[in-house]
Specification:
Shape of chain B: flat
Order of helices and strands of chain A: HHHHHHH
Mean pLDDT of chain B: 78
Shape of chain A: flat
Radius of gyration of chain B: 24 Å
Oligomer: heterodimer
Low-confidence stretches of chain B: 1-25
Strand content of chain B: under 5%
Largest interface: A-B, 54 and 52 residues
Distance between the termini of chain B: 60 Å
Largest sheet of chain A: none
């Protein structure tokens, strides 16, 4: 390297010696996207585990005994609606309307809470009937996959509430705007994962 | 990426007056695109639920394939209309990361299912092998 530079003279530089300016939050969105992709791999492994073990009932309850499709349809509707309400919050934020942004964010949070409540109700109901994770490989993989998704929604709601407090205190400052955009990607990503869950676990489970 | 990003002419043309507000070349939806995505999403959710809950198709295998196709279509709708995925955002790096992830996911899923299916069928306790053929 050094010999090359000596031979080539002073004009050629092989690396940038001077630090250069980066716009604030310039790479935040890409970084968060990369995090989501790694999260996607976690869910892919959980889906693979469910795909392999989902048929091992160990003479225990099967999906047709346990799942309540109308309930799943309601929770799916709640999550779908929360995606569009978050979209409306993003549109209001672009127009600098803090009040309506907060309103749509709170509606999104309520719909997320409805989804989470229905999932917890389903879990409680299943455990009450003796369909605990220890019962069979099917139930272990089911609780891990759906539970991980519910955990993500829980943290999404915590993030949403924190963000609404921050917007209330500081307004729609650039830092808060970036956070709203990141949470938007997180929220829509959870919706994408839920599409996989209701298709593979619930609908295909009823066909097994 | 970032060292070359802000000097390329293509990026300079797209640069927002206040880049800190709007991220780096990240596209946004309009009310129309969000509503289109939502309408498609509702249709693509309602049909699989109807197919399974109403027992519309007698053959379970065909129903499975159909609802999987609807699931994939809906995931694509969400990625385009809600996550605003395109080949240009962040200089194409979001798309590259997504394609890489999809390849890894497909390998992990299909590989696991394929290997474990054969393991199950070949190693089941009831599956007795002819001792003569083992020699």
């Amino acid at each position: 390297m050094s010999t090359t530079q000596q031979v080539a003279g002073d004009d050629i530089a092989f690396y940038d010696l001077d630090p250069h300016e980066h716009p604030a939050h310039g790479s935040t969105m890409l970084g968060f996207w990369l995090y989501l992709m790694s999260d996607c791999l976690i869910f892919a492994t959980l889906f693979a585990i469910y795909g392999v073990l989902g048929g091992n009932f160990a003479a225990g309850p099967s999906p047709t005994d346990l799942f309540n499709l109308p309930l799943v349809a309601v929770s799916t509707t709640a999550l779908l609606l929360s995606s569009i309400t978050y979209g409306f919050a993003m549109l209001e934020m672009e127009q600098n309307k803090q009040g309506t942004t907060q309103l749509w964010l709170s509606i999104t949070g309520v719909l997320g809470a409805v989804f989470l409540g229905l999932t917890l109700y389903e879990f409680y109901h299943m455990i009450h009937e003796g369909a605990v994770p220890q019962r069979s490989a099917f139930l272990s993989s089911f609780f891990v996959l759906v539970g991980t998704h519910a955990l993500h929604v829980t943290f999404g709601i915590i993030w949403l509430v924190t963000l609404m407090v921050q917007i209330g205190q500081r307004g729609l400052i650039p830092a808060n705007r970036i956070r709203v955009q990141c949470l938007s990607m997180f929220w829509h990503f959870l919706d994408v994962i839920w599409i996989g869950v209701f298709t593979v676990v619930y609908l295909m489970g009823m066909l097994r | 990426m970032s060292s070359t990003d802000h000097v390329t002419p293509a990026h300079a043309a797209h640069a927002h007056p206040n880049p800190s507000v709007h991220g780096d070349g990240h596209s946004h939806g309009t009310r129309k695109s969000y509503l289109t995505g939502f309408a498609l999403s509702v249709i693509l959710t309602a049909i699989p639920f109807w197919l399974v809950m109403g027992n519309v198709i007698a053959d379970g295998m065909i129903t499975t394939l159909v609802i999987m196709a609807f699931g994939v279509a809906q995931i694509l709708v969400h990625m385009i209309y809600f996550l605003h995925m395109n080949t240009k955002s962040e200089g194409g790096w979001t798309m590259m990361a997504a394609i890489f992830t999809i390849i890894v996911v497909v390998i992990a899923l299909s590989g696991s299912l394929w290997v474990m299916y054969h393991l199950n069928t070949n190693m089941m306790p009831g599956h007795t092998m002819d001792p003569v053929n083992l020699m």
